[in-house]
Amino acid sequence: MRSLMLKLLTTLITLSSLSLFAADANADLDTKVTTFLQKAIIPNENYTFDKVVILKKEAMKEMPDWMVYFVRIDLNLVKQEGKKLSVNDMVFTNGTILSKDFSNLNNGRSVKGSYSLDMDASAYNKEHLLAGNLNAPHKIVVFSDPSCPFCMDFVPEVLADVQNHPETFALFYYHFPLNIHPASPTLVKAMIFAEEKGDHEIVKKVYKEFFDIKETDEKAILDIFNKALNKKFHT
């Protein structure tokens, strides 16, 4: 139960499981980390990117050649003028490769799960409540990309846990498309449009489908979305 709690209470920012830095090889490591994170975030109708702040960094005990970076990503909330949302999380890097997590081969546990970060209270917005009780003692905020393989596994698992313990957990969901997944911006736009049309279960439906779209053409992506979810959206 303790490991489950640690996993559920870990804030999620969805990066690829293992990603090569695209930053200048001559840049210092702090700059490479912040530049990579900035490029990984795609603004949408809910937010625009502001900045990345490094809160703390330290060598990993498990792998001394790797560093763990505690970061804060500041976002401007589009629908709430003048308001910002700060998202705290951590990433791991050896200076060449950046990873969002590691698993211990002996027990299968997440290395990231042994850390905890605080979340800005403004993230606990009723409009983004996906499951559970708004006033539950344990709140989980998920920033997810519907095309991210890790997220497609993680979100349904967390959702099921929260639905089984609604008085214990509250799950808040935010769209977080990344440019490393070309179909994501179109999928997210379709999901937002579906929500506006009254389909408040669309997030659950999308993750149940487990989309693996290789297309980059918006019309082709929408056709796949429409067929899977019985919609008639068009560009």
Could you walk me through the main structural features you see in this protein, from its secondary elements to its overall organization?
The protein is built from 6 helices and 9 strands, in the order H-E-E-H-E-E-E-E-E-E-H-E-H-H-H. With 235 residues, the protein is of the alpha+beta class. It has one domain (2-104, 112-181). A hairpin with a 7-residue loop joins strand 3 and strand 4. 29% of the residues lie in helices and 26% in strands. Residues 1-20 have low confidence and may be disordered. The protein has a 5-stranded antiparallel beta sheet with strand order 2-6-5-4-3, covered by helices on one side. The chain has a 4-stranded mixed beta sheet with strand order 1-8-9-7, with helices on one face.
Question: Which short descriptors sum up this protein?
Answer:
235 residues; 5-stranded antiparallel beta sheet; 26% strand; disordered N terminus
User: Mean pLDDT score, rounded?
Assistant: 81
Largest sheet: 5 strands, antiparallel
- Work out the strand percent: 25-35%
Number of strands: 9
Strands side by side in the biggest sheet: 2-6-5-4-3
Structure classification: alpha+beta
Regions with little confidence, pLDDT below 50 for 5+ residues: 1-20
Number of helices: 6
Secondary structure: helix percent: 25-40%
Shape descriptor reads: globular
Keywords: Signal
Domain Thioredoxin-like fold: 126-217
Signal peptide: 1-22
Protein name: Thioredoxin-like fold domain-containing protein
